[in-house]
Amino acid sequence: MSHFLDRAEMNDRLADTPWEDLDVTPQIGSTNAELLADPHPWRALVTDNQTAGRGRLDRAWVAEPGQSIALSATLPLPDDATRWGWVPLLVGVAVRRALREVAPLDVGLKWPNDVLARPDADTDWGKIAGILCNATGGAAPTVVVGIGINVHQEPGDLPVDTATSVRICGADVRCEDLVVALLRQLADIQRQWDLPTLDDAYRAACLTIGQEVRIELAGDEVASGRAIDVDVMGRLVIETADGPVPHAAGDVVHVRPSGPATRPLAGPHDRAAFVDGLEERLVGEPRTLRRAEVADAAGVTTDDTRKLWRALGFANARDDDVVFTASDVEALRSVVATIRDGELDETTALGLARAVGRSTDRLAMWSLQLITDMVSGGQGLGVDSHIAQLAAERAVELSDQMGPLIDYVWRRNLAVAISRMIADSEPESHVGVIRTIGFADLVNFTQLVRQLSERELATLVLRFESLASDVVSAHGGAIVKTVGDEVLFSHTTVEGAIAIAFDLLDQAAADDLIPRMRVGVATGRVLARLGDVYGNTVNRASRLTAAADPGTVLADSDVAAALADNDDVRTIAREAIQLPGIGQITPWVLSRRGGELLSPP
Questions:
Q1: Which of 31, 65, 282, 390 would disulfide-bridge 72, Cβ 3.0–4.6 Å?
Q2: DSSP 3-state of 257
Q3: 142: Cβ contacts below 8 Å, ≥ 6 apart
Q4: Spatial separation of the C-alpha atoms in residues 56 and 113, rounded to whole Å
Q5: Could you please report the per-residue DSSP string of 304-322?
């Protein structure tokens, strides 16, 4: 394996960062020793062949050429010396974020300077990276941060069985990508480490907190107890019979678990601080403004701010509450500008705000639930505080990647919506559009719910929604909404809607978890408003679903007539039935021609 690192590529990708020049060497004794000889800020040196690397307490860090990276970087220390104990801990946050940026890894932190990873929740944590920080003196003290990361090793390449690598955890990454991500994260962390902004991010990722530990101190002294916190100076706090006792990293030789982890529940103040810190990272700034100050800055009245806030779906804030940021001012200015420039009237602007608020509210809850399920290993219901904090941290870290994706998907869906609107337009104006509407319903769902645990029910609903979404999308249809055991979909053609109906039945029949399904289909003019559909066609499809036998598609006469010449679909009329609110109609049972009906008419 070649251990050449592309210096030019990495420096090009770091051109917009404070790093002056990333130096690359094919082999070196120690990257930290090299930078300590001239420790001016924003120098960095990386190799994939370090021959005399040392970790904390002068422990050796060795690896075969090309299998790992050793990186050292010089950074300005915090102005407040009481924050220096947090430096190696926050470097750990940077390493963790960089690893998770380039690969979908489960990464945790061990106090004070180890980074752990595992391929799945059933595997023990292994050390994937180590950190060594050497402070320098002078009028402007700096710190040389040394980081070693196992990248390409296989199990037989590691010196101890408690170590792991990116590859062992199931990912293959380019070392250049990892180095660039790491240096960017270090620059971001350094900008914030004078303040306790990221301390809770460390605590949330620290696997040591909550463990029963045995601490070996200098002079063969030993302390034991439950690790309950990391204090304001970065010291590990151990709960003992005499009360909490802090231990600084410089006094500790080893920290080893001596019992199972029992993560302490954070108090209301700690939880609020953690949430505030994540919100600040998401929004980009802390809350500093009151309603009147936002209104003044945007050039509107406080009533205008209330109307927009309510339209977006946010809870009303009292006039004296400091809950707004400069981002709120910019958002309000943007809305006001579109109205003043005549691009939108106020009613439309507020309507769009409601659409965005409702859609993103569900998107936020849905995405957070999926991330929580992943972090907890599928145990997303009833998660404890530790899992909740890890999931929250992961969601925030993914937010920058989700933003462009959301914008892209909205634009593509807007293009589809425009295409449908143009296709539906007619020479003369008509109320509504022609659509084929389908309702798919899980049979005996109410009875099934009584037999399932909450976790099993959540799994079933997620599987049903995923199946329905995939099938409807595959045939070019649109999901209007899902409600527990039922999905409402539409299609511009009868044939497309029937293909969806048949595939839904087939997929449900082949899935051991999902119960049998039945589908009602009707076609005709519908009123499409704000993402929903209304009218007699929708009502007919709903009532036909309730009248359908398990495993069948039941359609109205208009659907059957549209399929009369279709060689792939068999249509059989049933006796006329009375549908509540609709009247008497003749329903038609549909099936694929050549196939057998799952239930006779």
A1: 31
A2: strand
A3: 39, 40, 41, 74, 75, 76, 77, 135, 136
A4: 8
A5: HHHHHHHHTTPPP--TT--
- Burial classification of residue 216, based on how many CB atoms lie within 10 Å of its CB (0-12 exposed, 13-18 middle, 19 or more buried): middle
Assigned token pair, 169: 């955890």
Its sign, for the CA torsion 93, 96, 99, 102, is negative
The candidate with the shortest Cα–Cα distance to 492, out of 526, 517, 465, 466, is 526
Between CA 108 and CA 125 the distance in angstroms is 8
Q: Please give the residue that has the higher pLDDT: either 519 or 334.
A: 519
Which residues are bridge partners to 278 per DSSP? none
The tokens of 584 are what?
A: 């008497």
Q: Rounded CA gap, 431 and 525, in Å?
A: 8
Q: Which residues contact 337 (CB under 8 A, 6 or more apart)?
A: none
Instruction: Specify the pTM.
Output: 0.57
Residue identified by tokens 């598609």 is 553
CA distance 166 to 147: 15
Query: Which pLDDT tens digit goes with each residue over 36-47?
Result: 998 889 999 999
CB of 592 closer than 8 Å to CB of 558: no
pLDDT for residue 597: 41
Q: Give the separation between CA 434 and CA 492, rounded to whole angstroms.
A: 7
Residues 459 and 463: their CA atoms lie apart, in Å, by 6
Q: Is the peptide bond before 257 cis (omega within 30 degrees of 0)?
A: no
Give pLDDT tens digits for 380-409. 456 777 778 778 888 887 887 788 898 999
Whole-number Å distance between alpha carbons of 46 and 410: 41
Quick check: 93 and 52 in contact, CB under 8 A? no
Collapsed DSSP state (helix, strand, coil) of residue 224: strand
Residue 411 contacts by C-beta under 8 Å, 6 or more apart in sequence? none
Q: Return the number of other C-beta atoms located less than 10 Å from residue 23's C-beta.
A: 17
Indicate the SS3 state at residue 132: strand
Q: Name residue 47's beta-bridge partners.
A: 70
